[in-house]
């Protein structure tokens, strides 16, 4: 391990397909990025068994989806006795299950043994564990969950998606700073347009929160383009869209259900004729592609921005590709020292601090 | 005109296709419902010219989409000198343009000359005019805009969609009462399940507003099923979903943009092969049907519930069918005395009153 090695902990026990997709996503990332090491956190025997299977498949010449041989010396295991289930109450679970994989993973980050944590388990528990063990980044009042939505003009970073249900204007300003730094480094858009999610475009529109946030954003050095509406997300009017975690959470979950509803409607309506059925058959690959495009995890999960570390939260049903993408994003955040930039951006401005 | 005649004012100058769709939607409704009279409000000459055209087309034997001959004696014109444009600032416009069609239409309701007002013009102006001239219904603190979303289990009434950006728990309770009465009469679902839009299903979830509203809804005699999430709307988990107007507005506009984004994605992805293009061609009618299904106005516009009158606000790009549907809903609200029932529901309960 060199000084520039990026060390990433992956919760191997959290998610719908454990430890399979976590181990496979991690080994794919290790093959792709020579500068990373992954620590799989979970039941040692279960994880080791899966690794052994993969190793013997690789030894027997089975092809990976990604190229190259795995450097197994860069894959480690940290044993964790317990697991936090999807149905566990987050705050309680991280207090009572101190030996749970997600808790152990976050403790590794706190002690400096790893630089980042990836989890596809209980979202609330992952968030609570990172908040507790990584702590807040200097200058940030409220860490926020962010994800990338697709749009006709490329991806749009939307936050907060549920970490903070009641927000103040300065929180929305901080979200905008954090997401702008993220987009600039991870998406590669150096001057992201920031929009304030509102119920109208006019400056006077909004509730107490957005009216206050408008003033702060306008005075900032961010590339603030004003209010944006619900329809502007898919239109790609802004590159960063800020809102409180209540609105963001409702929007995210509504958005996640859209594709399923459209698929349901198509199924219902194609039964009316054989030609429609043929049309649907021919369009199947298109629907698959759109489904993938509309799945935020394909862009690398949802980072919890504003914690003093890197924490990326993935969907429970993430694929190995999604896990690899999350590791890719985590690596980028560590390599580019994105947290240092967020700190310095917030420190430079005499505003938005609580 | 008999005692049981339902008199409906239609703003003939508001919307993208004036006065065409308004006049045609109104005449279709007059042919369908023998107990209604429609007053078209707008520039007398323009409206009369359009009516004359329609009459001569009908006289020459041209078939209507709906059956029967129009009883022209049940179609009236009320002259209005001015028009409020889509870009006019609502509150200011209704004060300065006293002779605007939407103002005149609402004044006709105030004076008792009509029972209901339909508008497809500037939404904010229509809302402001109804609030000002109809006034609030006894027991209602805040009138709210409602619409019906499609779901896999039938339509779902969602409110508020933008009339009130900052709400209190009792407002959400009142929204639930109003929408339950609406759904029971217009949709025909006698015991609608009421859901509180929240950022999680657990009782403890939410912001200050929803935590307070949960208590009120739970104590009420409504069929309250607890918190619902963004994904529950298309799932049809509840028949009535209440939220503040900020969240509802963001959701409505996001939802309106969904179909366009999916269409864009399909167009982009079918270019990859001729088979995909053929598939898309065969599925064209399916997409048309889904688009219609996802257009709230097909269910009869968005009623402003809680005003002392009936006010239905339609999309600017409403079709004649959408206008006819709005008149159908307005007629039902008047015939069933839905406002009296809302008043009595709110009066019977010793709660939710401000």
Summarize this structure briefly.
2 copies of one chain form a homodimer. Chain A has 12 helices and 11 strands. With 354 residues, chain A is of the alpha/beta class.
Detailed description of the structure:
The structure is a homodimer of 354-residue chains. Chain A has 354 residues and is an alpha/beta fold. Chain A folds into 2 domains: 1-139 and 306-337, 3-Layer(aba) Sandwich (Isopropylmalate Dehydrogenase), CATH 3.40.718.10; 141-298, Isopropylmalate Dehydrogenase (3-Layer(aba) Sandwich), CATH 3.40.718.10. Helix content of chain A is 47%, strand content 15%. The first copy, chain A, has 12 helices and 11 strands. Chain A has helices at 20-32, 44-59, 90-96, 101-110, 123-133, 169-187, 208-219, 232-235, 245-270, 274-293, 320-335, 338-348; strands spanning 6-11, 36-42, 75-79, 116-119, 144-149, 156-159, 193-197, 223-228, 240-242, 302-305, 310-313. The first copy, chain A, has an 11-stranded mixed sheet, sandwiched between helices. The longest helix of chain A is centred in the C-terminal third of the chain and has 26 residues, at 245-270. The model of chain A has no long low-confidence stretch (mean pLDDT 91). Chains A and B meet through helix 8, helix 9 and helix 10 of A and helix 8, helix 9 and helix 10 of B.
Total number of beta strands of chain A: 11
Percent range of helical residues of chain A: 40-55%
Instruction: Name the CATH homologous superfamily of the largest domain in chain A.
Output: Isopropylmalate Dehydrogenase
Strand order of the largest sheet of chain A: 3-2-1-4-11-10-5-6-9-7-8
Number of helices of chain A: 12
CATH topology of the largest domain in chain A: Isopropylmalate Dehydrogenase
Question: What pattern of helices and strands is seen along the backbone of chain A?
Answer: EHEHEHHEHEEHEHEHEHHEEHH
| Termini Cα gap of chain A | 40 Å
What Rg of chain A is obtained from the alpha carbons, in whole angstroms? 21 Å
The CATH architecture assignment of the largest domain in chain A turns out to be: 3-Layer(aba) Sandwich
Q: Number of folding domains of chain A?
A: 2
Tell me the quaternary state.
Answer: homodimer
**Helix/sheet category of chain A:** alpha/beta
CATH class of the largest domain in chain A, please? Alpha Beta
Query: Largest protein interface?
Result: A-B, 62 and 62 residues
Q: List low-confidence stretches of chain A.
A: none
Share of residues in strands of chain A? 15-25%
Sheet with the most strands of chain A?
Answer: 11 strands, mixed
Q: What do the pLDDT scores of chain A average to?
A: 91
Question: How would you describe the shape of chain A?
Answer: globular
């Amino acid at each position: 391990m060199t000084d520039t090695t990026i060390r990433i902990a992956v919760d191997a026990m959290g998610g719908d397909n454990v430890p399979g997709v976590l181990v496979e996503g991690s080994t794919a990332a290790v093959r792709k990025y020579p500068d990373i090491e992954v620590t799989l956190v979970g039941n040692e025997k279960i994880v080791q068994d899966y690794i052994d299977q993969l190793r013997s498949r690789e030894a027997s010449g089975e092809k990976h989806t990604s190229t190259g041989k795995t450097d197994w010396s860069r894959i480690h295991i940290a044993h964790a006795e317990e697991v936090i289930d999807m149905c566990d109450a987050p705050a309680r679970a991280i207090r009572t299950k101190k030996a749970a994989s997600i808790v152990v993973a976050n403790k590794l980050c706190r002690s400096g043994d790893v630089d980042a944590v990836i989890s596809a388990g209980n979202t609330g528990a992952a968030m609570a564990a990172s908040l507790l063990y990584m702590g807040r980044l200097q200058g940030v009042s409220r860490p926020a969950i962010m994800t990338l939505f697709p749009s006709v003009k490329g991806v749009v970073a939307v936050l907060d998606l549920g970490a903070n249900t009641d927000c103040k204007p300065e929180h929305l300003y901080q979200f905008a700073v954090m997401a702008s730094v993220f987009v600039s480094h991870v998406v590669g858009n150096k001057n992201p347009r920031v929009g304030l999610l509102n119920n109208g475009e006019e400056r006077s529109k909004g509730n107490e929160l957005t009216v206050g946030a408008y003033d702060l954003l306008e005075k900032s050095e961010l590339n603030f383009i004003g209010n944006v509406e619900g329809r502007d997300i898919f239109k790609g009017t802004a590159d960063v869209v800020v809102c409180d975690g209540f609105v963001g959470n409702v929007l995210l979950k509504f958005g996640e259900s859209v594709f399923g509803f459209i698929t349901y409607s198509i199924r219902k309506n194609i039964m009316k004729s054989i030609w429609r059925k043929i049309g649907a058959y021919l369009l199947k690959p298109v629907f698959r592609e759109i489904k993938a495009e509309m799945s935020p995890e394909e862009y690398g999960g949802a980072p919890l921005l504003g914690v003093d570390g890197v924490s990326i939260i993935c969907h429970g049903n993430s694929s190995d590709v999604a896990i690899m993408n999350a590791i890719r994003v985590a690596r980028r955040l560590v390599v580019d020292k994105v947290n240092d930039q967020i700190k310095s951006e917030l420190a430079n401005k005499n505003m938005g601090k609580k």
